[in-house]
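A favour, since you know our structure tokens better than I do. Would you make up a two-line entry for one protein for me to read? Write everything out right here, beneath this request.
=====
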Amino acid sequence: MIKKFSSTFSALSIPNYRLYFFANGISVIGTWMQRLAMSWLVYRLTDSTLWLGIINFSGLFTSFLLMPWAGVILDCGSRRKILMCSQMLGFTQAAILAYLTIFDLIDVKLLLIMSVVLGLVNAFDMPGRHSFVSDLVTDKKLLGNAIALNSSVFNMARLVGPALAGIIVARAGEGICFLLNSLSFLPFAIALFKMKINETTGFSGKQSWVSGIAEGITYALKHQVILPVLAMLATASLMGMSIHMVLLPVVADKILMGGSETLGYLTGAMGFGAVGGALWLASRKSIDGLIRVMPVAFGFYGVFAILLSQSTSFIFSFIIACFMGLCMVNGFASSNTLLQTISDKRKRSRVMSLYLMCFTGMSPIGSLLMGWISSEIEVRPAMILGGSTCILAAFIFTLHMRGKAMLVVEAEA
């Protein structure tokens, strides 16, 4: 038992990664607090699912458009220095948002602008954080563990951040959440400043950015594993992730007849389940089998999303949300591990930018689509449609990848 526990946290034996792990955890808690507070603020100001979709769309689609360029820049430059700059910009955006909200100067148009600014920052921050792990953990045997631990941090923050935000919003308002998020960027910036690492780049500065983008896309399209994984991710993000990103506030309000605290508990429940899933992935000693874990996870996520749409019990909805979180992290974290392990290190930031375009970049389109669908046919049918699409995509992926599992094992070796 002790040996199993030790192997779950084996990547923390690396000093630089250990520093990254804890500082990143603080930063992500702040991010989740702001995410819930912004969703609730938009809904409070507009009482509109369509505006919830528009705000989510604006920030994430901005990141989606810029990520190919960001991937090239991260591959040819210092990921550490680029990440330090993104932390300072993130701090500034959150501080301005806090000021506008606390002094009651905010409206939905300003929220739209601030969402776009955050999208600009995240275009560099998100792929940078993912690909930076491979600079800190050079041992491939520990890389999968490090990625899974990152997922556990992200989802522990999903548990803690929204629960705190729900309480703070109810008692002190959304502005305090934005202020705390701005402060959460500072420990990560300090940790990055203290690190001394040897970074490797695979993109020549003499090569044009356009050709660098084309090289990364061509590499992904021709790869027998990367392309189908990205396609599965894009589908799950488009029709699955938008369910909890856009419709969860409506589930809390209209179906469960709750408020911001109910939303915080539901989001926290997803985080609770996700932490368990991430720790299970971290305990695995090999990536063998992850190619099967991903479609099963996304398929069951769809099943639980449909069940959530029919539940009027808070306790049952809380349990369902836990399982949704577990399935979600198993799907996205296993695909992250697969892509980072099998991709060429010289193109890793570009592959991760494509991963994030599918992971978070397709979700703004899904957010806009799900916001519109739910406003036209109501929330329950929209959730059933999204869940059914995830189930169908998982089935098609499983059929397509039959007999190709050995490609993953060979890449790890």
About this structure: The chain has one domain: 8-194+211-412. The mean pLDDT is 80.
